[in-house]
Structure formats: C-alpha cells, structure tokens
Amino acid sequence: MKFRVRVEGARELRRELQRLSDRNGMRRAMRGVHIEVAHLVSGQATREAPRKSGRLASTVKGTATETKAVVQAGTGKRVPYAGPVHFGAPATRAKNPKNIKPNRFIYRAMARRYEETRRAFRDAVYRVLRNIDSR
C-alpha cells in the first residue's frame, strides 16, 4: 500500500532546476527534503495506525529518492491486511466475511503534517536558490 501526493508544477520546476542541479546541490537537497517529509508523515502514520497487535503500525515506513517521498504500510506476508484496513473491503463469503470500513490513517497523517511538509519543500528550494544566487 502506497500513498502519493502530486504537486502541480513539480515536474516543470524539477526540469528547470535540473540544469543547475548538479553544480548547486539541488538533487541532494531534494532527496534530503523528501527523506525529511517521508519521516514526518510515516511517524504520524505510525501513531495513527489502528492497533490490535501493533504489527500494522510497525510496518509503516517512509522512503525517498530525488523525485519523490513514499510512505507505505504492510508487507505481503507479515501484514497482508494493510490494504483492506486502509482502503476498506466489502464483505465476501470466501475471503472476507466482515465488511471492513476504511481507516485512512496514512491520508490523515499527511493531512496533519501538510503545513510542515509544505514548509520543508519551500525552505529546501529557497536554500538551493540562495546557494545559486550567492555564487
């Protein structure tokens, strides 16, 4: 299970800044801010995850690259129910006798940390632009 947020204009910004990126540390800065954001949201999602045994909460993790931050929960074998818990699942006779209501804890975590993530991205871009300007 993955959670994605698309930022309008991010691709164009990345393309424009990519010309300057290698010299000025844009790639490192973006990877750093993506790591920071992924950890912010994954920490909140861990606290928001429903708990019976605690296994679902223990699988929430944040990862990052230069182009994205990803928060995911559940593993195929250890916690195969992560998707149905997050998105819900209708009752079926064979696999799921109970109707599972969605508990969108990752989405809530992102919403609660939205302002912090927005500030982190803004500050990272400003730092790189100041670095370019000072050269």
Give structural notes.
The protein has helices spanning 10-24, 26-48, 55-58, 82-87, 105-112, 114-133, and strands at 2-3, 61-64, 69-72. The protein has 135 residues and is mainly alpha-helical. It has one domain (2-75, 104-133). It has a three-stranded antiparallel β-sheet. Helix 2 (26-48) packs antiparallel against helix 6 (114-133). The chain starts with a strand and ends with a helix. The mean pLDDT is 83.
Strand proportion: 5-15%
Tally of structural domains: 1
Number of strands: 3
| Rg result | 18 Å
Q: Kindly report how far apart the N and C termini lie.
A: 43 Å
Helix content: 55-70%
What sort of overall outline do the alpha carbons produce when their principal axes are compared?
Answer: elongated
- Tell me the series of helices and strands, N- to C-terminal: EHHHEEHHH
Largest sheet: 3 strands, antiparallel
Organism: Longimycelium tulufanense
Protein name: HK97 gp10 family phage protein
